[in-house]
Amino acid sequence: MSIKIHTLAGYIHEYEKSVLQPEQFWSRIAETFHWRQLWQEVVRWNFDEPSVEWFVGGKLNITENILERHLYTLGDRPAIIWEPNDPAETALTITYRELYHRVNEFANAMKAQGIGKGDRVIIYMPMTPEAAIAMLACARIGAIHSVVFAGFSATALADRINDCQARLVLTADENYRGAKVIPVKAVVDEALTKCTSVEKVIVLQRTGGPVNMQDNRDIWWHDAIAGQPDTCEAEEMDAEDMLFILYTSGSTGKPKGVVHTCGGYMVYTQFSFENVFQYRQGDVYWCTADVGWITGHSYIVYGPLLAGATTLMFEGVPTWPDAGRFWDIVDKHRVNQFYTAPTAIRALQAFGRQPLEGKDLSSLKVLGTVGEPINEEAWHWYHDHVGKGRCPIVDTWWQTETGGIMISPIAGITPTKPAYATLPLPGIQPVILDNDGHELKGNSVEGNLCIKFPWPSMLRTTYGDHERCRQTYFSQFPGYYFTGDGVKRDEDGYYRILGRVDDVINVSGHRMGTAEVENAINEHPRVVESAVVGYPHEIKGQGIYAYVIADTTGRTEENLEEEIRATVANIIGPIAKPDKIQIVPGLPKTRSGKIMRRILRKIAEGITDDFGDISTLLDPEVVEKIIAGKK
Ligand code: PRX
Questions:
Q1: In the CATH hierarchy, which fold is given to the domain comprising 508-629?
Q2: Helix axes 154-164, 184-192, angle to 10 degrees
Q3: Is it true that domain 429-502 has CATH number 2.30.38.10?
Q4: Most buried by CB count within 10 Å: which residue of 196, 219, 279, 580?
């Protein structure tokens, strides 16, 4: 166990220590892990280059801290409980001992295919235990995993494979998702027509559906592990060696590969997991995210397993076979900590309270949310009807880049406030800057959320393009890490996240760059130009509104809109399909050609006046025309 905070006074005490003496604070936590060699320096950093190193000179393997560390004390305890998509299929429990053997066996299988330290491995898999086993097996041998959410299209997958020059892809024949069966291997096959770096594909047989297996390239998972020993010496890693790459969207068109390293990520994910959720040995913890996102990495796999916790993995969706599926699972597995996204809460709230009836939720102790701001109404519904007023809600603010939870209540210890992420965890130093970069001190202030001191699990670079990392996060406010979020610190000193201040939209907790969606729309041959903005959406938080200039000759607009949606699904994936498409005669641009998104955002929200001075636009009349054409 690292440091566990039990009281409000304990939180205040640890927080102060973490700011006054960060080196001592973090080394005391890091010392509770197994290192092959201890570090010489706790942190070395400057935010100008940027260059950040934690536990400098330390040697370790993160999987020794998950597998060997727990083998003798927790060997027979469940590490993973797996609930399949179909409630009629039997759930599985994998103990720490079984996990140890299965990870090692698969590590040997990858080695047998010539994969080793530093090689990049793409994981494009369903939410089965094998996805977690695959991640850990990579970490075991020092290969760098990059998990790609299995809802991404072949084009998006190919872009990621090519960016990191992966040698191996791990996938399945098909994925079950609710009532649907998704042919993921076929998506991989299509992607690989555009990639030259991939030598092997290992395919898990999940559904038994038909797939094409290419000679000398594709191997069944069960054949790959057949005859492999179930022990495998862990590769010794430097604290700053890469652990994984995870692609995420930003304000430019191309997703970037956020890089996390071994030592700091290990220390921070366990520390934050244990404290935020107040996990106790024997509890069953469930995070509903997908392993394709950072939440799945840090709080389904690494954080809980480092802590020796029991982590539940669910393959399916919240609304199949019915909208009571989540509550059935809580009841069936006696879940104690439940962590989900506001969008899921709002979607379930729309079904009313009937799906909750007859479900025993008395095991729940802590509820959590992540990924987007939670509105007060959804917060209260979650608190009253799921938590029955008994369970603190941890509204956890963080990002792919931060690696772990940054601002959040500590369950049952620090106060909660509906729609507020509240207070920073120990070790985290948030500041609010105005647009000129001045720190706004004191309470009742609002501005740009930045972090002024490094923390162990922060990103180190963007894969293959360090300058992009500097530009995106460290250039707008020199000397600070800029999150891209707006924030308010209220009269009590609690933080409330206000949403993105850049060209990123958050749809159902999924991060999307407006430029990325525009690029996809522009691929349609009839599209001349497009501009995408977010607008408030009751369930998804934000919806995607696309203004499109297109050649409609001989087509109906509806027909063209459907084709544009299909194009986006093809290039990015169904999650990026615009909710609303408006064919427009022009876009509001300044004389220098910059699109005035501010105006488009207002129109999407239904505002028809109060646009400020539009006389500087190249064609001010276009605004009226767009309003008139809005459906
Ligand atoms: O805008 C913030 C929002 O999600 C963004 C990060 O997205 P991503 O890297 O995909 O990671 C999501 C899971 C950690 C942030 O910049 N966000 C995340 N959590 C919250 C949030 N907004 C408000 N409240 C939160 N609790």
A1: GMP Synthetase; Chain A, domain 3 (3.30.300)
A2: 50
A3: yes
A4: 279
